[in-house]
Amino acid sequence: MDQRQQAPIYWDNHRSSFNLTLIFALIVAVIGVTQFNPALIIIGLGVAAYSWFTNPKQYLIYPDAVVIVYGRPRVKPIPFAEIAHLETVALPTGERLRLRMVNGSRVMLMAKDPDTFRARLDEALSGYHGEEWGGAHVEGTIAGESQPGAPENSVQSSAEEPTAFGSDGPPPFDSESGLSSGDDPRGPTTPY
């Protein structure tokens, strides 16, 4: 798809339009010019260029892709076919949308109006993938595990009682630490 010939469904700017890193880098470059210091000029211009090409300016939603517009001329299209999962992450600094890609990588989106952007992106993804696409917001964690391509998580029902370490039952399985039934990171325990 050629995004230049089709109008986006929805667009939003990046949460912060003020690029402080770029400004400081340009100040360092100007100081390097005034002091005739080539190292400061190179460092200042290098950091300014890096900041220009890596900080998003806008997010555009098309019927089959999300496009992230960085400093011109850099534009990054992300086709919906490459998106496995859409998550809302609630952090102390604010809500962010995270795209989990089919290859396992993640892309954070920080739109000015995250709720409207998420709703519009959900509509576009539902139109592309079908009605199974969806997800909920869970504070402090990620949400939306029911989407296609998402890993299955074991969820404990409210009727089950969690097993605490040091109790008579085995510890629960934890995929990050690799603990499974009978493995206790403290080794064998003896009751007091």
What does this structure look like?
This protein has a domain at 20-54. Helix content is 25%, strand content 21%. Helix 1 packs antiparallel against helix 2. The protein is an alpha+beta fold and 192 residues long.
SSE topology:
Blueprint: E1 10-13, H1 20-34, H2 38-54, E2 58-62, E3 65-69, E4 75-79, E5 83-91, E6 94-101, E7 106-109, H3 114-129
Antiparallel strand pairs: 1-2, 2-3, 3-4, 5-6, 6-7
From the structure above, extract its key features.
single chain; 192 residues; alpha+beta; 4-stranded antiparallel β-sheet; 3-stranded antiparallel β-sheet; 3 helices; 7 strands; 25% helix; elongated; disordered C terminus
Helix/strand-derived class?
alpha+beta
Report helical residue fraction.
Answer: 25-40%
Q: Which band does the percent of strand residues land in?
A: 15-25%
Q: List the uncertain runs.
A: 135-192
Largest sheet features: 4 strands, antiparallel
Give the strand order of the largest sheet, numbering strands 1, 2, ... along the chain: 1-2-3-4
Rg, Cα atoms, Å: 23 Å
Mean pLDDT: 75
- The strand count comes to 7
The outline comes out as: elongated
Separation of the first and last Cα atoms: 68 Å
Question: What count of helical segments does DSSP give?
Answer: 3
Q: Which sequence of SSEs, written as H and E, runs from N to C?
A: EHHEEEEEEH
